[in-house]
């Protein structure tokens, strides 16, 4: 990732205005985000001029549940978050495959002030990802998604933010 490509990418607010699928849900989740004070404090203490790139598509249920939370934290911490479409950026996606083979999204890639990649997160918080890859595979997709939505509603973004901070903080 170079600075020029990063700066051409949509800000989260621009991305939010461009979504077509699940538009109301994207906006509702973004409006309802309430960040845990302890995680905001932790993020603000991580100095370094961080740049985050999210690979996403508007149809992705996991993206709609996680990226608005990441966007709010980035705003609070002074990090610069940009969003790129997965399908229009295969070179970036290929370097961040889930289990080395799946083009699952969202993926949030963390870059330092010089645009060196320091790590990446995605496509889901580890707890719900483990459930999906285990017992979740045994149930129908609509039923699986109901369980995932309930998990996200209960978690309220805490696990996503904690896992993202576990990437950023050691790199600082």
Question: How does the SSE layout of this entry go?
Answer:
Layout: H1 3-8, E1 10-11, H2 12-18, H3 23-32, H4 37-45, E2 51-56, H5 61-77, E3 80-85, H6 90-94, E4 107-111, E5 117-121, H7 126-133, H8 141-155, H9 158-171
Parallel strand pairs: 2-3
Antiparallel strand pairs: 1-3, 2-4, 4-5
In short, what is this structure?
The chain is of the alpha+beta class and 172 residues long.
List its salient traits:
172 residues; alpha+beta; 9 helices; 5 strands
Would you write up a description of this structure?
This protein has 172 residues and is of the alpha+beta class. It has a single domain (3-123, 157-171), classed as Glutaredoxin (3-Layer(aba) Sandwich), CATH 3.40.30. 53% of the residues lie in helices and 14% in strands. It has nine helices and five strands, in the order H-E-H-H-H-E-H-E-H-E-E-H-H-H. It has a five-stranded mixed beta sheet. Strand 4 (107-111) and strand 5 (117-121) form a beta hairpin. Helix 3 (23-32) runs parallel beside helix 5 (61-77), helix 4 crosses helix 5 (61-77) and helix 5 (61-77) packs parallel to helix 8. It starts with a helix and ends with a helix.
| Sheet with the most strands, sense and barrel status | 5 strands, mixed
Lateral arrangement of strands in the main beta sheet: 1-3-2-4-5
Number of strands: 5
Question: Tell me, what is the CATH class?
Answer: Alpha Beta
| Count of helical stretches | 9
Question: Would you tell me the overall average pLDDT?
Answer: 94
Please compute the radius of gyration using only Cα atoms: 15 Å
CATH second-level architecture: 3-Layer(aba) Sandwich
């Amino acid at each position: 990732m170079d600075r020029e490509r990063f700066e051409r990418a949509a800000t989260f607010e621009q991305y939010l205005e461009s979504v077509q699928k699940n538009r109301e849900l994207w906006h509702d989740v973004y409006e309802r985000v309430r960040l845990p004070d302890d995680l905001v404090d932790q993020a603000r203490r991580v100095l370094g001029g961080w740049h985050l790139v999210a690979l996403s598509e508007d149809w992705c249920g996991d993206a709609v549940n996680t990226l608005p939370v990441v966007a709010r934290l980035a705003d609070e911490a002074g990090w610069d978050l940009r969003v790129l479409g997965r399908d229009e950026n295969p070179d970036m996606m290929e370097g961040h495959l889930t289990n080395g083979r799946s083009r699952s999204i969202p993926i949030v890639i963390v870059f330092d002030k010089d645009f060196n990649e320091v790590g990446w997160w995605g496509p889901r918080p580890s707890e719900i990802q483990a459930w999906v890859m285990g017992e979740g595979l045994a149930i129908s997709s609509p039923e699986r998604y109901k369980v995932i939505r309930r998990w996200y509603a209960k978690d309220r973004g805490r696990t996503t933010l904690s896992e993202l901070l576990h990437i950023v903080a050691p790199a600082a």
